[in-house]
Design a protein that fits this description.
- The protein has about 550 residues and is mostly helical.
- The protein has two domains: about 5-255 and about 320-440, no CATH class; about 445-555, no CATH class.
- The protein is built from 25 helices and four strands.
- The protein has helices at about 15-20, 25-45, 50-65, 70, 80-95, 100-120, 120-130, 135-145, 145-150, 160-180, 180-200, 205-215, 225-250, 260-265, 295-300, 315-330, 335-345, 355-375, 385-415, 420-435, 440, 450-460, 475-480, 515-520, 535-540, and strands at about 470, 495-505, 525-530, 545-550.
- Strands 1-2-4-3 form a four-stranded mixed beta sheet, with helices on both faces.
- Strand 1 (about 470), helix 23 and strand 2 (about 495-505) form a beta-alpha-beta unit.
- The relative contact order is 0.12.
Length: about 550
């Protein structure tokens, strides 16, 4: 590695000497062990799965039991993650003796966690391609240790698989840009298509790489021979289309996601009129059990009442985007990311592939900004790609600071440090600055929702065929096994309705069906109550959950 004076992230002294003696496979093995430990802990301490996960599990069940040509245009998520959950569910069924809510939830978490751990490999190699192997190592470590990325890739969500495929596409695209290798663009296109099959914004990686490839032709030093340029561009586009086109033909368009179609002006949507910025409810992209409610109420952690947002909408949207991105960086890591962008701004001349993650981040930021303006919501989850790309510049800045720290101390105190002390100091600094958030990262997932799982498992043991579960929160409905019985709907009035409500100060004003459920519960009898312990109440603000039984004769009929 070269000194930082000529633009490299590290130097051949201090902590650089420690990693220089370790082969790549050992560095990757160490990171994989750390990531596996974090994900295993988070999965083991999960109280309930994410609400989004219930939707994905429902889709997996429907993909198994219904015709794909009929169901794919109806489900509101791209199918690859649900298919992976379905595939893993077969060995899980053999272990558990059948389909269970707990087993399916675990399948969703295992798919996300496995992909989240494997994400280390393309991140390490992409960091080495953009900067050097030290930056690749610390960027992968930083992203794994950040709370939002660890939590999301340990939950039953598509983000882990999406980030793995997106980063792999970026890696092959950047390698193709640097090596003038058309074959790498074919691999890039394949992973772009797979990322798109997971989430529609996966196509942005291909757009970013393609635009950088075209932009390089304006600089003589970076210009490609025309035949090689044609082969690279065609290989990228054709490979992506081959993977994505069958799905697009089945759904008859680009995407089935409501949020994306609203952004593209293909669906009408009106912002909610109630001002709220409550973060007490978990973020969820789809209502998991009951239809429908305003998207921002279901999806968002932010929404705005027009005229009360404290400024013009464009400014409010920009502020929301910045705040949520800072939160996803866990309040601190965005600072070295900005420093890295400034310190290594000249590297674009030698490493044009750096423009690909930058352009991808810019495109996604513009889309998220429009998402806020159109739907009035955003969450930390949506900014994970920005965090992933920013991790490389944050790691480059931290490595540079670590390399210069011994020299600064020597000038400050007038006493040189031994080589081993320099190495220990630099390594300790990097470990501290990447692992400072580990206590927050290891917090149990959804511990405040434990009562809903207890209620769902009680319902699974005590309900009869024909009974229904009215659950605005979705978790008890899921853990009662109702998701797998939705295809066989009982006739109205054939059984008892069990209503799940909470006894807490949180009004849950984003759950629009909750007032009706509470009104129905008043007509029934309390049959189950879960009360949090003092520790659960103080540390996690867990809520008391109640279940009321309402006889069919008292259940109001829909007109």
């Amino acid at each position: 590695m070269q000194g930082s004076s000529n633009g490299q992230a590290g130097q051949d002294d201090g902590s650089a000497a420690v990693l220089s003696r370790v082969p790549d496979w050992q560095l990757l093995a160490f990171l994989l062990l750390v990531a596996a430990g974090i994900h295993a802990w988070l999965i083991a301490t999960t109280s309930v799965t994410a609400r989004d996960s219930i939707g994905y599990i429902r889709y997996a069940h429907r993909l198994e039991t219904e015709s794909w040509q009929q169901i794919l245009p109806k489900i509101q998520q791209h199918p690859l993650y649900s298919l992976a959950v379905l595939g893993l569910s077969y060995p899980m069924r053999w272990l558990e003796g059948g389909v269970t809510p707990q087993g399916m939830a675990l399948c969703g978490q295992l798919v996300a966690a496995f992909a989240g751990c494997l994400l280390i490999v393309p991140m390490f190699h992409l960091g080495r391609e953009l900067f050097d192997r030290r930056v690749g190592f610390w960027a992968a470590a930083l992203f794994q240790l950040l709370p939002i990325s660890a939590e999301v890739t340990s939950d039953g969500l598509s983000d882990g698989l999406f980030l793995l495929l997106l980063t792999s596409a970026l890696l092959f695209g950047v390698q193709g840009l640097h090596r003038q290798a058309p074959g790498r663009f074919v691999l890039c296109g394949l992973f772009v298509g797979l990322a798109y099959l997971t989430r529609p914004e996966g196509a942005l990686a291909g757009v970013a790489v393609f635009l950088v490839l075209l932009g390089m032709q304006y600089w003589p030093a970076l210009r490609w021979p025309r035949p090689r340029l044609a082969w690279g561009a065609v290989g990228l586009v054709v490979a992506a289309v081959v993977v994505a086109l069958p799905y697009m033909l089945v759904i008859g368009g680009i995407t089935v996601k409501p949020a994306t179609n609203i952004i593209l002006n293909r669906m009408e949507y009106r912002l909610p009129t109630e001002t709220s910025q409550s973060k007490d409810d978990d973020d969820t992209e789809l209502r998991a059990s009951q239809e429908p409610s305003p998207l921002a109420v279901v999806l968002g952690v932010w929404w705005v009442d027009e005229g009360k947002s404290g400024g013009p909408p464009w400014w409010w949207g920009l502020r929301v985007l910045v705040v949520e991105t800072i939160h996803a960086f866990h309040y601190v890591a965005w600072v070295p990311a900005l420093l890295g962008l400034w310190w290594f701004r000249d590297r674009l001349h030698d490493r044009p592939g750096l423009a690909a993650p930058l352009l991808l981040s810019l495109l996604l930021a513009l889309i998220l900004w429009r998402l806020v303006l159109k739907l009035g919501y955003l969450s930390e989850r949506h900014t994970l790609v920005l965090v992933l790309c920013g991790s490389f510049w944050a790691a480059a800045a931290l490595v540079r600071i670590a390399d210069n720290l011994p020299g600064w101390l020597e000038r400050r105190f007038g006493r040189p440090l031994p080589a081993r002390a320099q190495a220990a100091l630099g390594l300790g600094f990097l470990l501290l600055l990447t692992g400072w958030c580990l206590p927050a990262t290891l917090k149990p997932l959804h511990a405040n929702r434990a009562g809903f799982r207890a209620a769902g498992e009680w319902l699974a043991a005590n309900t009869l065929p024909g009974d229904t579960v009215v659950d605005p929160f979705c978790w008890a409905h899921f853990y009662a096994g109702q998701v797998f019985q939705e295809a066989a709907k009982p006739q109205r009035g054939s059984g008892t309705s069990y209503v799940v409500v909470t006894n807490s100060k949180n009004s849950h004003n984003r759950l629009t069906s909750l007032p009706a459920a509470r009104e129905l519960a008043r007509q029934g009898t309390l049959v189950f109550r879960w009360t949090p312990s003092a520790r659960q109440l103080k540390r996690y603000r867990a809520e008391e959950v109640e279940v009321y039984a309402v006889p069919s004769s008292r259940t109001p009929r829909k007109s």
